[in-house]
C-alpha cells in the first residue's frame, strides 16, 4: 500500500512550501551576486593623495621598472628622474618572468603627535583591472617605526610582479587603522608597457 504524499491536508501545503524554498534559494544567489557588485563599487575611489583618519597623508610621486633605461641615461637631461637603483643593489633578484617595480611615496604626518607607521606592511601594488595584488619585497624607509608630528619623509617600495601589460591599471592600495585608500600610480612615470598579457 503506497502512501499518498500528494493527497490530504499535508500534500496541499507541500507544493507551496517547496516553491517558497526554491524561490528563497534563487533570491539568495541573486543577492550574493548583487552584494559582490556592490562591494566592488563600494571601494574607495582612486585619488592622487589620501589622508588617513589619524592624520597620515600619502602620495605616490613616481613609479618605474627598476633598471629600465630612462630619458636621463639616453641623453635627455630634461626628462630624467635621477639615478635609479640597479637590480644588483637590490636584495635578491626578481623571480624568472617577473619585473621589479619601484614606487616612490611621500608620507606626511599632519597630526600634532607622532604616529606609528609601517610602509611595507600598509601599502600593496594592485592591478585594478584584475584585482591581483603584490606585497612590497623591499623598501628604503629603513624600518621607520614612527613618523613625528609635522614630519615629511620620502621613500620607495619595491614590488616583484609579471611584466605590466598595456591594459593594466596599477594602483597602490593603502590599509591603515581598519580603513582602505587607493592611490593613483602616475602613468607618466615611464615604466615599460608590455604588449602581451601576463
From TrEMBL:
The keyword Signal applies. Keywords: Signal. Residues 1-33 form the signal peptide. This is DUF4352 domain-containing protein. It comes from Phytohabitans aurantiacus.
